[in-house]
UniProtKB/TrEMBL annotation:
Catalysis: reaction(s): Fe-coproporphyrin III + 2 H(+) = coproporphyrin III + Fe(2+)
Keyword Metal-binding set for record: yes
Entry coiled-coil feature ranges: none
Similarity field: Belongs to the ferrochelatase family.
Signal peptide residue numbers: none
GO biological process assignments: heme biosynthetic process
This enzyme's EC code(s): 4.99.1.9
Annotated positions binding Fe-coproporphyrin III: Y13, R30, R46, Y47, Y125
InterPro entries: Ferrochelatase, Ferrochelatase_AS, Ferrochelatase_C, Ferrochelatase_N
Name of this chain's protein: Coproporphyrin III ferrochelatase
Amino acid sequence: MSERKTGVLVMSYGTPETLDGIEEYYTHIRRGNPPTPEQLADLSSRYEAIVGGFFPLRENTNRQVACIQDKLDTMAPGRYMCYQGLKHARPYIEDGVANMAADGIQEAVGIVLAPHYSTMSVGSYVKRAMEKALELGIEMHFVESYHLHPKLLEALISRVKTALNAFDSSKPLKVLFSAHSLPVKIREMNDPYEEQLLATSKAVAEGAGVADWEFTWQSAGRTREPWLGPDILETLKDVAEQGYTQVLSAPIGFVSDHLEVLYDLDIEAVAAAEPLGVHFARIEMLNTDPLYMETLAESVISQDTWRQG
């Protein structure tokens, strides 16, 4: 075996490290256009509501990268070196690729901490990483999705089963699978995002023995263009009208405790469910679950064509 290491670029959306970094972060999301004072105040208040200045996504991502490294070291000692690349915060995706080049990495695999592929999400990470890799002479392959990996499904099924045990089995319950909404225009692009999300939802529901479930959307962007719906807040009204008094939220499009989970679900959705007479709770997020870490490590190894054959 060659002693030369394969780089692993672990990519995610990113988050500011402190409240003081929110404006720079929001400006990057808005492609260099600073947010209005009202927009900045709104985002800052959401972070303050969930974390009081501590940003769990950044810490979760750091731990996830470290755990992926540990899994790879166990499966293939000395073969891989993990690097982090964030979409909207430092170290940016391009920084991660540059760090690989500085360490003499010539071959690399990229993977995003999101199981489902869309040209507008994972595809944009891949594009940025590939452009920088070509510039620096790194040959790079990518894991585009892993939405039906058996170990990912096993981890999600276990979480759904565990969460269901806390509900009253004598009362009507609906399981709502959800993911981050994207602009409706992805449907014109033959984008696989919706299909992959439904496939994961179906597999998890079947594995957990759940017959009564729906898929819904959440966390749509605040832009003029239409986004995929219905939103989970609308779906909650619908299920309440249908007579359901319990809802288990399974946000399978997310893998970490961060804003879209800790605020949009744990605060906003819980507040919306209460006046409807609906008890709302969610599954635990994957974070550094060993099965999820093995999913990522195995997916990386499967793309490491330089070592195969």
